[in-house]
From TrEMBL:
Pathway: Amino-acid biosynthesis; L-lysine biosynthesis via DAP pathway; (S)-tetrahydrodipicolinate from L-aspartate: step 3/4. The keyword Transcription does not apply. Keywords: Amino-acid biosynthesis, Cytoplasm, Diaminopimelate biosynthesis, Lyase, Lysine biosynthesis, Schiff base. This is 4-hydroxy-tetrahydrodipicolinate synthase. The gene is dapA. InterPro entries: Aldolase_TIM, DapA, DapA-like, Schiff_base-form_aldolases_CS.
Length: 290
């Protein structure tokens, strides 16, 4: 249902406020360069520091600007199930194509708790739901058997899998079958995950290099893995550079270097350190982006 290079888009700020003009221009640039879908209010979109009003405005504005040209998968996850339901209901009402829900963070739920969390959202909101598993952000790994159980819920259609384990990816695809969409949650693993059967990626790197990420995914989808490898190695320095510090610190700095947005980021995240700015600038130059 959802596939391709789906950008986990940043939320630009200016003077502490959501910068709608820059954001609309980013969306237009993404679509023009082949991005298959926009994913607002994820980790890269600094969802954790958006107010509820801002969160809902970013989602609604994304849907308005995209205007059905590509998919919009709204980040609606929370560590509180009721809050996740509220955000997911808003996404449906605003016209999102799907919702992306991170596993509850901080609470450290059991596997049963994870299942019941998603089952509650699925029961409350008739919208395609994409799970998001990333133990490094949440302290809990959603196990393949739990994912397979959750995939049986009628409107759970896929997962952004960020465990970093190709063994786990293989188990998920084997247990859930072809109808369940697995998307890479780690840009550097897009190619090997697609070789295993993943349908694409929800990507940070597409924020700065949308055309090359789309080309990588398009080539892999077409079974042209030699061409896909070419794009993988071309993008590999960016895969590393955009994680010199906590995401989205480097990618917002990179976009500022490209004069796409102001470099504003919200506490407790801080601007990229001077040493890493120079390292990032060199990679951006070498990649032909500045």
């Amino acid at each position: 249902m959802f596939s391709g290079s789906l950008v986990a888009i940043v939320t630009p700020f200016k003077n502490g406020k959501f910068d709608e003009q820059s954001y609309a221009e980013l969306i237009e640039w993404q679509i023009a360069n082949g991005t298959h879908g926009i994913v607002p209010c994820g980790t890269t979109g600094e969802s954790a520091t958006l107010t509820h009003q801002e969160h809902e405005r970013v989602v609604a504005f994304t849907i308005e600007v995209v205007n059905r040209r590509v998919s919009v998968i709204a980040g609606t996850g929370s560590n509180a199930t009721d809050e996740a339901i509220t955000f997911t209901k808003h996404a449906k009402e605003a016209g999102a194509d799907a919702a992306l829900l991170i596993t509850p963070y901080y609470n450290k739920p059991t596997q049963e708790g994870l299942y019941r969390h998603y089952a509650a959202v699925a029961k409350a909101v008739d919208l395609p739901l994409i799970l998001y598993n990333i133990q490094g952000r949440t302290c809990v790994n959603m196990m393949p058997e739990t994912i397979a159980r959750t995939a049986k819920l009628a409107n759970v259609v896929g997962i952004k899998e960020g465990s970093g384990s190709l063994g786990q990816v293989s188990e998920i695809i084997q247990q859930c079958g072809e109808k369940f969409t697995v998307l890479a949650g780690d840009d550097a693993l897009t190619l090997p995950m697609m070789a295993l059967g993943a349908k694409g990626v929800i990507t940070v790197t597409a924020n700065v290099s949308p055309k090359n990420m789309a080309n990588l995914v398009n080539a892999a989808q077409a079974g042209n893995f030699a061409l896909a490898r070419t794009y993988h190695f071309k993008l590999a320095p960016l895969f590393s550079a955009l994680f010199y510090e906590t995401n989205p610190i480097p990618v917002k700095e990179a976009l500022a270097m490209m004069n796409k947005i102001a470099p504003d980021i919200r506490l407790p995240l801080t601007p990229l350190s001077a040493d890493n700015q120079e390292r990032l600038r060199q990679v951006m130059k070498d990649s032909g982006l500045i």
